[in-house]
Amino acid sequence: MELAVLLWMVFILTESTSAEADQYTRAVDWLSRYGYLPPPDPRTSKLQTKEGIERAIRVMQRFGGVRETGVLDNETIKLMSTPRCSLPDIVGSEDMLKRRRRRRRYALSGLKWQNTDLTWSIHSYPSQPHSPSLSKDLVESILTHAFKAWSDAAPLTFRQLPNNSEGPSAGGDIRVSFSSLLHDDGYPFDGKGGTLAHAFFPGRDPMAGDTHFDDHESWSYGGDSSSTDLFTVAVHEFGHALGLSHSSTDPSIMRPYYQGPVENIQSYQLALDDKLAIQQLYGVKNSRPSGGVDPKLPRLPSPPPPKPTQLPEPSFHERCKGGFDAVANIRGEVFFFKGAHFWRTKRDGSLVSLNPAQIHNFWIGLPQGTKKIDAVYERKSDSRIIFFIGPQYWVFKDTQAMSGYPRPLSDWGMRTERTALVDRVDAAFVWAHNGKTYLFSGGKFWRFDESRKGEQLPREPEPGYPRDNSLWSGVPTHMDDIISWGEGDAYFFKDNQYWVLKNGGLNQDGVTPKSIAVDWLRCPAPPSTSTTNPRIPKDCRCDLKGSSSSVRSSWILLILVLIGDFVRELV
């Protein structure tokens, strides 16, 4: 019996180790395929170094907008399994990899069409067994509207040609086809899921501009969870065919991962990042697109019944896990933002609700698909609320976004020591100690004087900035967010802990981290952890549920009596 148990344990351990090794091998292959690692060289048998793989994972995590750890955690493995475009995210040498370690706005391939009157054709259509809801006419209508998304933003025109000629250059500049597995271009598809499509950059090569969709996918118009929306993937791939690389910005149609359907393709407009990218290549369009439907475009049928747009509610226990994207003191209440939701604590320390609220239902004017907030703060001069998401920011009056937003983060004039503009804010707060606004990004911080009311554009940091985050001694140098609370104290939040710098001090090495979950969010304390809620009087002797110690003693006494009766029964 003991031998059987021992053999079973050895088998389980061996299987576990083998599975981890296989997962690691597949991850290295994924990183090589999408440009984060150089491809292996069979002539030299050169192995990837541990440091190089960790560095590549960090770049991939930052590009994909997940927590940057350098290890294959569950969030990273899930992102690697997400359906996506098969073009690499990092195009070029090790030098390019170094330059892409920080999140960038739009990315250009360096190639463009020399003419702006472009032609396109369809060489093959999606097969009916895999995509039964798409007729040939509907496919043409969807692709026409996908091209329109780009011609609305730049001086480009697209004319469809009939596919009735032979030869490699027949069918115009951009030739669309639905293919599967090996299809004679050197970039085979992998069946349903995984890679969805790819396109070739502009140029003189016979395949320049060609756009291929994996025919094994189930393509649809307004895809549900069991199919893939053709329009959003087509807009993305046509961006490549026009000369754009992948972008790490959210929102951007050029992110490499499938983003799901849009609400109305007839009124769809590109995000700011994508507009700036295409205009960098082809210039700005003189006339703005009209809000109505162009009568020259092919008519689309009524879209399928709308799917619920509400994101799944996270369990209220999620608040106890920490890892908040942003924390803000707004009107004396503290908001904890996580994903597309937030929790809110009142002045007396009580939670408005154990269940989170949806961000876009409360803050009217943020993008419908907002997945995370980078930083938020309330401006003290006029009580406006500023949201930072990627390379953009919004200004709110109460819970309504003001007109003219979003605007680019470059308005703030934050530059690194190498004069590069910052493209993301990690944390932001107004320090009650001096009334100044502090913005943090990439281990540095900038200080602003916003004492004058109203919008002052462009903004400029105070002289002598940026400075290094290490000046805030005793707290993490890469925090999730910061608020000012109480008598001007600064509260630094990181993962599931927070630190307090008292009374305007910077050099406080003796700061002890405390639990966000226990002190702020009414979560049960782990064993041997006492609560230190900054808003509960120190002489309170209550536990988390408000029950006194005498009640607990009564329960213990009752249990002892029951045990005694049980023993006497046995005797």
UniProtKB/TrEMBL annotation:
Any one biological process term the GO annotation gives: collagen catabolic process
Q: Which organism is it from?
A: Echeneis naucrates (Live sharksucker)
The residues that the entry says bind Ca(2+) 3 are 190-191, 214, 217
**Keywords for this protein:** Calcium, Hydrolase, Metal-binding, Metalloprotease, Protease, Repeat, Signal, Zinc, Zymogen
Q: How is the cofactor bound?
A: Can bind about 5 Ca(2+) ions per subunit. Binds 2 Zn(2+) ions per subunit.
Q: Which domain of life is it from?
A: Eukaryota
- The protein's name: Matrix metalloproteinase-25-like
Which residues are Ca(2+) 4-binding? 325, 374, 480
Catalytic machinery residues: 237
Its family remark reads: Belongs to the peptidase M10A family.
Membrane-spanning residues = none
- The record lists Ca(2+) 1 as bound by 215, 217
| Ranges for domain Peptidase metallopeptidase | 109-284
State where Zn(2+) 1 binds: 183, 185, 198, 212
Q: What does this protein need as cofactor?
A: Ca(2+); Zn(2+)
Signal peptide location in the record? 1-21
Q: Show the PROSITE patterns listed in the entry.
A: HEMOPEXIN_2
Q: Which CDD domains match?
A: HX (cd00094), ZnMc_MMP (cd04278)
Phosphotyrosine modifications at: 405
Provide GO CC annotations from the record.
Answer: extracellular matrix; extracellular space
